[in-house]
Structure formats: structure tokens, C-alpha cells
Amino acid sequence: VRDLVVSLDTFFSQINRVEPYLQPSFVPESGEYTASNESMENLLTGMNCIMCGCCVSDCTVLEVDANFIGPAALAKAWRFTEDPRDSKRDERLKNLNDEDGGMWDCTRCMKCVEVCPKGVAPMDRIMELREAAIEAGNTNTSGYHHTESFYNSVKKHGRLDETRLAIDSAGWTNIPRLLDLAPIGIAAMRKGKLPPVFPHKAEDNKKVKDLYERVEDAD
Ligand code: SF4
Ligand code: SF4
Q1: Which pLDDT value is given to residue 3?
Q2: What interface predicted TM-score (ipTM) does this complex get?
């Protein structure tokens, strides 16, 4: 990248938020603490980052929310959660899951993947962080509820139940968040865009069900 100037104003403070260094539980008395070739090969995607800042400069969420940790820092965090020598994996995942501006604030716009000159694909790393966080038992976020509702709705009806998705994501007992949604619902109703309360089922959702079965069997 020779002819590019990006704003690095917040770049390094975002990187620092994810504690971008190895935190092993022990240090060998002599020699290096090496990891297997296989695990290092897995880390290569993230380690290819040259800190150019292109992804941060083009991230559509950072444009409107300066608190978002951002693609480069999240890809850096992924690198340490995947390193078998790091002892803070669960803690890192929990923090990135719970934190305002953490892994669930990415909207999957793909911009960071398009502009990264080193194939780090930060968005893909963020999706892997989400999967790892869920597998580690972090299911307390609206991001997780959104994912779960989407999955169940398409499985059941063959199409998305948008009303239920909004309520599930907010949380059925989260009254302040539900009240926030009310004006959006009213505006949608006025424009005739309110999704049906009882979702239409796909005429033939057998193919969708077959797909689910194949994916679930493969897991
Ligand atoms: S995919 Fe996520 S992290 Fe990447 S640019 Fe879009 S919002 Fe930002
Ligand atoms: S992830 Fe890619 S675009 Fe972002 S800072 Fe690293 S090398 Fe640059």
C-alpha cells in the first residue's frame, strides 16, 4: 500500500482495548514457548495484518459509532483467542461479547474484507469470535438472541418472522428496548410495511428443512 493515507487517530487506542499481547499461564524456564505448526498456520490469517488502517478507515459502523472496537482490533483479538498459548481466551471472549462496541456491533457490511490488502478478512474473524463466544456460553446479548431467532424462524416457517425477530432480539422482558421499537412499528404500520403478526409459511419449505437437517447432521 504505497499511495494511501488513512486516518489513524483512533486506530491504536482501539488495538490497545483488546490487550494485544500473549498472556500465557506459564513461561518455560529456558527456550521459547512454541506452538504447533498447525495452530500457527491457523493464526496466519490474522498475523498477516500490517496495521495499515484501511479497514478502520472504511468501516461503516465506525463512521457512526466511535465506540465500536473496529475490524482491525477485533481481528487482533481473534488472533489471541486462537493462540493455544494464551490463558485468557474465555475472559477475552466474555469481554468482547459484553462490552459496548464489541463483537456484536459489526453489521457485516463486508467493507473491511473488500479493502484489506492482506486477506485478513476482519469480518470473517469477527464472525468466528461470535461463534466462539456462543460456544463458550455467552448467550446474554441481543446479538445472540437475534441469531437464534433468525435460525428458529426460518427453520420453522421457511421464511423470516420479522415481528418475532425484533421482539426476540430486544428481549421479551426488556420494556425500555421494546418501547424504543414502538415508534418504528407505528411508522411501518402507517406506510403499510408492518410485517404480519402471524408469519406466512413458505408454500413448500421442505427444501429449507432438508438443508437444516443436513447442516445439523454434519455438526
Ligand atoms: S463488516 Fe463489520 S467490521 Fe467490517 S467494515 Fe463492516 S461493520 Fe465494520
Ligand atoms: S486487517 Fe487488513 S486492512 Fe485492517 S489494518 Fe490489518 S492489514 Fe490493514
Answers
A1: 65
A2: 0.99
